[in-house]
Amino acid sequence: MQDSSFIYKFYYGWWKNIDKSIFFLIMLLFCLGLFFSLVSTSLIASDKLNTNSYYFFFKHFFYICIGIFFIVFFSSIDKDNLFKISTILFFICLISLALVPIIGVEIKGSKRWLDLPFLPRFQPIELLKPFIIVIIASILSSEKNNNLYYKYFLSFTVIIPIIFLLITQPDIGQTFLVFLTWLSLIFISGINLIFFFLFFGLMLAFLLYLVFFVTKFSYVLIRLKSFFDPSSGNNYQSEKASEAIINGGFFGKGIGEGILKNRVPEAHTDYIVSVISEEFGAVIIIVLMIIFLFFVYQVFKKLYFEKNDKIKLILVGSISIILLQALIHIGVNIRLFPTTGMTLPFLSYGGSSLIGSSIVAGLILNFTRKDSNKYNKYD
Predict the structure, then answer these.
(1) pTM of this prediction?
(2) Is the per-residue pLDDT at 85 higher than 90?
C-alpha cells in the first residue's frame, strides 16, 4: 500500500485520530433511530399518510447517510478551513432563516420551512444552530478585544436577529434552545453571575410578555394552561403520549404490540419517545438518557485537558445543544414540560434535524481528535 493511497490517508488522517468512543456513541444513536423507525414509528407515519409502509424508513436511512457524510467532512478538515467554512455557512443559513417569513411554507400554523425548487424542504434553524456555536465561541475567545462585557454584547447582537426571526415563525421552543445555548457559552466564559441571571431574567420576562400579551403567541398560553391544568382541554398531544408511556409500563408490550401508538401525533418526530416506550417500556427512556449522559461525559473528559478557549467553548456549546434538546424532547414526552415540537437528536425522523445534529457531531469529533494539538495557532 502506497502512502499516497486514499485509504491510507483516510486511516491515518481521520480514523486513527478521532475519538472512537464518541464516534460509536453517535453511530449507536443513529442505529437505534433506524431500528425504531423500521419496527414502529415509520409504519405509523406511513399509515397515517397512506404511503408505502417503509417510505419514511428509507428516507430516514437516506438522511442518516447524508449525516454521516457531514460528520466525516466536518471532523476531518483542518481547523483553519473549519472556521472559514463555518462562517460562510452561518451567513448562508442566516439568510435562509430570514427568507422563511417571506417565502416559507406554513404547516400547522407555523412558518418554519423553506421549499426551494432545487432543494428538498428544510428547516433553516436546524442547519444554523451548529454555526451559531462556532461564531459565538469565536467572539467570546477573541484576543482582539479583552473586554469581556463588550464580547457578551457583541455575541448578544448575533443571537438577537436569530431570536427575532424564530419568534416571527413562531417557534418558542427553538428560541429558548438557542438562548439557553448562548447562556451556557457565556457562563463557561466566566461571566459574573449577577449579569448571567440578569440576562436570563430579561429573556424570560420578554418571552412571558409575548405569551400573555401578543395574540400570535396565544397558542403557547393554551399549551401552558393545559400543562398545568389537564382538565382545561387542548392537551390531546401530551395526553395521548402519556397514555402510550403508561400503557407500556416498565418493560413494554413488545415489538408491534403497542395499541395506543397510532393515536400519538407526530409519532416519528416530536413524540418518538412515547411511541417506543409503549412497545419497549419506560426502561428505554432510561437507556437513552444514559447514552446521552455518557456522550456528555466522554466530551467533558476531553474538555478537562483542553487549553484552547475557543475549542473549549465550541465543545461546551455543541454538547449543551444536544443535551438540552434531548432533555426537552424527553421532558415533553413524559409531561415534565409543555409541548414544544422538539425532535430527539440523532433518533427522530427529519432531514434538517438529522443533518444539523450530524454537523454538531462533526464539530465535536474534530475538536476531540488526538492530533488536535497540531493546530496551535489558536493557543
Answers:
(1) 0.87
(2) yes
